[in-house]
Amino acid sequence: MTAAPHTVAPANTVGRVMRQVLYALLPAICLHIIFFGPGLVIQILLGVTAAVAAESLALRLRGQPVQKFLMDGSAAITAVLIALCLPPLAPWWLIVSGTAFAILVAKHLYGGLGSNPFNPAMVGYAVLLVSFPAQLTRWLPPDISGLQTVAFSLPETLHTIFTGSLPTSLQWDAVTSPTPLNALRTGVAMGQTLQEATAQPIFGMLGGRGWDWINVALLAGGVWLLSQRLIRWHTPVAMLAGLTIPAAIMSAVDPGSYPGPMFHLTAGASMLGAFFIATDPVTSATSDRGKLIYGAGIGVITYVIRSWGGYPDGIAFAVLLMNLSAPLIDRFTVPRIYGHSR
Amino acid sequence: MIRAMTGGGLRLETNKERSTAAPLRAASVPAEVILPLDQHAGTAARPLVKVGDAVLLGQPIAEPTSDISAWVHSPVSGSVIAVEPRPVAYHAASSPCIVIRNDFADRRDNANTAVDYASMSPAQLSDHIARGGIVGLGGATFPTASKLSQAVAQPDLHLLLNGAECEPWISCDDMLMRERAADIVFGAHVLMHALGTVSCTIAVEDDVPQAIASLRAAAAQVQPHIRIATLPDVYPAGGERQLILAVTDREVPAGRLPSDIGILCQNVGTAAAVARWIRDGEPLITRIVTITGSGVREPANLETRLGTPIASLIADCGGYTTDDRRLIMGGSMMGLAFSDDRLPIVKGSNCVIVPSPSDLHPRSAEMPCIRCGNCSEVCPAWLLPQQLHWQAQAHDVAALESFGLMDCIECGCCDYVCPSQIPLTQRFREAKVPVQAELLARSEAHLSRQRYEARGERLVRIENEQRARLEQKRREITGRKSPP
Q1: Same-domain check for residues B397 and B267
Q2: What is the DSSP string of A202-239?
Q3: Shared domain check, B347 and B446
Q4: Could you tell me the residue range of the domain that residue B414 belongs to?
Q5: Predicted-complex ipTM score
């Protein structure tokens, strides 16, 4: 006979949680494809294949039921998140090795689903970022009128991804364009003012063109996750506040060098980080108060890395640093129990 | 104004309308009743009858054996045919039972008479309530008089009657409040007199409008005034500590009783039972039982003689719809599963669910915890079940204790929302055993240290006294010697 409770919430499984997260990413994925071409689709397919292979291998080696854990969808999410961070024309081995590293090392060497202290997707991405920095800067400008673009067809995209070289007659320097965060960074480093650096056509009203809409789509997906009660508001709100407040202060102090909060919120992986990466429950702080500290930490560290660090975007490192701090945060943010003082 | 349960809880599908469509009616009286002697909290009662004895309806057949124990009365007239262990639905082991064959004459025990409670002192009244065999009918079955006497020393007591029937499926209190609100109000006045207080609230969930209307009408006719408070139908709003917080905005400190903060909680059914005993001279020999679920043809609430086999109630409700004999005693969140429908209804039996597969959502395969925190969001004790789960896996008794395992009320909310389908409540029940043992060992160690220190002090004292006596004697001797 079963023990109480005799009933649980219907259709509430880890697999469902993961599927909902994937649905929430769909609008941003669509916009990404519109702006940057079909490369992302190839990257996602490659990543998911690598993730499933790595997950199966790891589960088999660990003597775990392969079918049961493969169907939870967590490996697929890791792959999709890494794919969203990579340039769409990046060579195939980049996403494959990054995803494999994420699943095999960051996830399964630490005990698999639920036991990994670090966000596997961010570990995978960070390893690629420090190992292959050149490949990770090869972004195309978004396919928006007014920007000089070379539209890549599907065959050209496949050719580039699988051979690692562009179609004949094209040079990397000619087709790539710095991301807004990168352009801003280089410009300011060369002594330009913020206004001069952002005078390029890749910058729009909010921030980088194309990127702003993708971030809006990610925000919409995140709000949907909130409405589905799949994530709590504490982490994303705290993270965005951690990014906004220093940005507001610094841009008020020195408007010539520091962009304002709007730029930061709509640039790079801000919304992806806030709603889809920092909210990874396994690797974040657990109590509501803990989540506020955890999220704020990610926001502030991201701002610091973007403004004064060695990388144009800092979400991955910020997340990993706060993953490291999560157990400590948990220790000091245990909520008060009913009937207990403190 | 009552606020929502502060932190935690769940809005569940209540399924109560299934059993409230038909009015309250009496169950068939069976040919044989089985009366467990340990159907209340505390120590088992001692039989006053033996096999072959004739008994009257309402006659005491077992007496309490300690301060926390209760009288048991015969719900029928007839003869005792067995005093022996029988299986029961509230625990796995058998319980000592008195079995009575019904002669269907319903010859009453005339010693049971109505009393004028207003002329009695609180202590006399409390003693008299004990003689009615009355225990908490919300499910905990704590002897009512014991609860009264624990609280009566407190000044400014407030009586809180719990009509918040928060568990899904159960509707016996709803039907009682709808149809017998006057009994509840009368019982409330008796309990107020026994406590020496004039302050009483009846707390009800806001999804039982008919019950609220009946209570308001009944309470309006009498003095002192009884407040009817409504609260949102959030499970487990009817948990004693959760209810107290929602109604009074105060928390019961951990390890203490509600009476320590001046509140005495009783179920509305208990108040009605008190009324029947005081006003009509009828001890606790019946209770209202909800029979519900898709597995029974006509769900209903039945006023049932204690000791009636569950099968008899199922028959009263048109019988089973399936061959599946899975039964739940209590609600779907905290009830106990069993399969034998010959087991008897006892004082604590509020509901029997005969579920069909579609009534309950069974758990799917268990996955590892992903620390999503849904469990801590719904925990009404404000615990972190996800942390307790890790600590229970690691058998970390110290951490389990400091993270409040013993404050877990086993409501099942964490299980309900867990996407990893982990049977958290069951794990916590099991994990409480070593923590309890540790606490006990510590309190025993504390006691023996106290004893050891007391012994040390006593030895020192005795030695000092002996020394003083010797000194005295020596002085007397030398004093006698010196003056020649």
Answers
A1: no
A2: TB-SSSBTTHHHHHHHHHHHHHHHHHTTSS-SHHHHHH
A3: no
A4: 366-484
A5: 0.86
